[in-house]
Design brief:
The protein is built from 4 helices and no strands. It is mainly α. The chain has 2 domains: 36 residues; 69 residues.
Length: 106
């Protein structure tokens, strides 16, 4: 094998190593943040499906809440979109994990 081809291959594999290391590090950091908010996420989901949410929503509709109050949680769409995005992300992660396990790369 020619030395140039070997050097080329090693340099390419170094780029693969560097890119993969950086991606794994970023994913680990993001996953730690995701794990850290799971209690808050569960609390939000419990609230969204409760009578308290409905009471707060009705109070907002009746104009009983201060005008400057941030109330995205009462918009219906914001929480529903989060639930949907979270579910789709979980499915996507499962597919990536299954493929990695199948390819024995994990």
């Amino acid at each position: 094998m020619k030395l140039e081809k070997r050097i080329e291959r090693i340099e390419e594999m170094e780029r693969c190593l560097d890119a993969s290391r950086a991606a794994v590090d970023r994913l680990e950091e993001a996953f730690e943040g995701y794990e850290a908010v799971q209690k808050d996420y569960k609390k939000l989901i419990d609230y969204y499906g409760s009578s308290r949410w409905l009471e707060d929503f009705e109070a907002d509709e009746a104009g009983k809440l201060p005008a400057g109050l941030k109330r995205g949680v009462l918009s219906e769409d914001a929480v529903y979109d989060l639930l949907t995005d979270n579910h789709e992300l979980a499915v996507r992660m499962m597919k990536v994990i299954a493929k990695a396990l199948e390819n024995r790369s994990l």
